Amino acid sequence: MLYVVGLGLGDERDITLRGLEAVKRCEKVYIEAYTSLLSFGLSSHGLSTLETLYGKPVTLADREMVEEKADQILSEARESDVAFLVVGDPFGATTHTDLVVRAKKLGIKVKVVHNASVLNAIGICGLQLYRYGETVSIPFFTSTWRPNSFYEKIQKNRMLGLHTLCLLDIRVKEPTLESLCRGRKQYEPPRYMTINTAIEQLLEVEQLKRESAYSEDTECVGFARLGSEDQMIVAGTMKQLQLIDFGLPLHCLVITGQTHPVEEEMLDFYRPKSENLEQQDNGV
Amino acid sequence: MLYVVGLGLGDERDITLRGLEAVKRCEKVYIEAYTSLLSFGLSSHGLSTLETLYGKPVTLADREMVEEKADQILSEARESDVAFLVVGDPFGATTHTDLVVRAKKLGIKVKVVHNASVLNAIGICGLQLYRYGETVSIPFFTSTWRPNSFYEKIQKNRMLGLHTLCLLDIRVKEPTLESLCRGRKQYEPPRYMTINTAIEQLLEVEQLKRESAYSEDTECVGFARLGSEDQMIVAGTMKQLQLIDFGLPLHCLVITGQTHPVEEEMLDFYRPKSENLEQQDNGV
């Protein structure tokens, strides 16, 4: 049996009782490294909080490992109970559909334990979740690669009066150009896009396209470390948010569509009070 | 302090460790009755599973109580720790924004504990969550009230190639017409829309509008009891799904937009195998 278990967004206490039962039952436990290293403040040597809670060792599985060693993980799951842990929900922003498809094709039973993901946790800002359009991803621009397909999607959402969730780029374990040339594996340091960079890129594309999909006066909501004890949520125009230091990653950004009075009322709690930014605290 | 705690979708084991800690700390615990009675198989006299887990009594709060006694709940939260439990995520399909806004206006601290909601748990069918457009609600038609604003929204989503989540009507504690006339409180028995009824209404509106937003051959995914041990997920055309008995509520329906090969591959696992419907089991 392959258990795909969502860990939620904050820390080790965001696992569900059902998820914890599953992990305790499993002989082998993997955790995807792509976002977990960051979200849970883990390092390759720092899985101990989780391991203490689970009472067993946890193997960090980076993208390469999941791709290269999927056969091994799946053959273990055929013989015994294996847990694959994922930050957020298993089918949230990052999908693990491929591993599940491969398991099902091999006739291995798969059970999914759901949890919160960024896609529903953004509801906390008061913008109604059913009034969001297509989600977009903002990739890091380079000198030669500045893809802007997100622009048209935001434009369509806003024409329909809908909000847009912008997921911001995460670059973890990217091989250096040099190492690609030399065939030796060396990696760039991890990079996580800030809200400031995202807005800079968004405004650059608006400057280029000039179709008024949005402007520096468009109302947005910036989220940093959503679901964790020191989460920060600020509502304001792009221009306002660009001046704010949201601190450590992960960040994401919502561009509002048409807002209703009840949405506005809730957003007001997140607007910067003159020189006194309200830092929202979700600690329990 | 007011804790607004998401319970997830299945049963009492879907609360997170963080949520359970919060509940254990609280002096008073309310649970919203609107969907919890059903999702958790609870009755007004059957809160004992939760009460045993939490080690304290739980007060069932129906919509009237939340509206009429919000002042009481909030004044308790001002003096001590109060938990308000919500099926799914606090800001999922049903929102509790109003209670949170009132608490914040009174200066009462609010902490939110997130959990899975139907909005992200539908990801299990393989349709990518970022490729959904606006969510629609399908209300029960009556002889005199047949609102169809969902039609245009589905049409727009499908024109953009996006999937549409249809939330199906729940009618709990609706006063009878007779009781409204007599001023005595009597309620209709609860009603939960099935996938079959939803498709019937959808096709009726298509017949009326004739704009080909969708047809009986449009691919959909039906979900019953999502996230619980006996959940049932079936992919097929509207015509096919209309013949299927999905069993007990809650039901919801996804109308596909353009599907990618990886989405199709996953949907294939949920297609009815000749006279042998695959019932998906999420039990852990």
TrEMBL record, chains A, B:
HAMAP family: Diphthine_synth
Organism: Rhamnella rubrinervis
Occurrences of domain Tetrapyrrole methylase (ranges): 1-241
Protein name: diphthine methyl ester synthase
Taxonomic superkingdom: Eukaryota
Its biological purpose: S-adenosyl-L-methionine-dependent methyltransferase that catalyzes four methylations of the modified target histidine residue in translation elongation factor 2 (EF-2), to form an intermediate called diphthine methyl ester. The four successive methylation reactions represent the second step of diphthamide biosynthesis.
Pathways per UniProt: Protein modification; peptidyl-diphthamide biosynthesis
Transferase found in the keyword field: yes
NCBIfam families per record: dph5
Family in the record: Belongs to the diphthine synthase family.
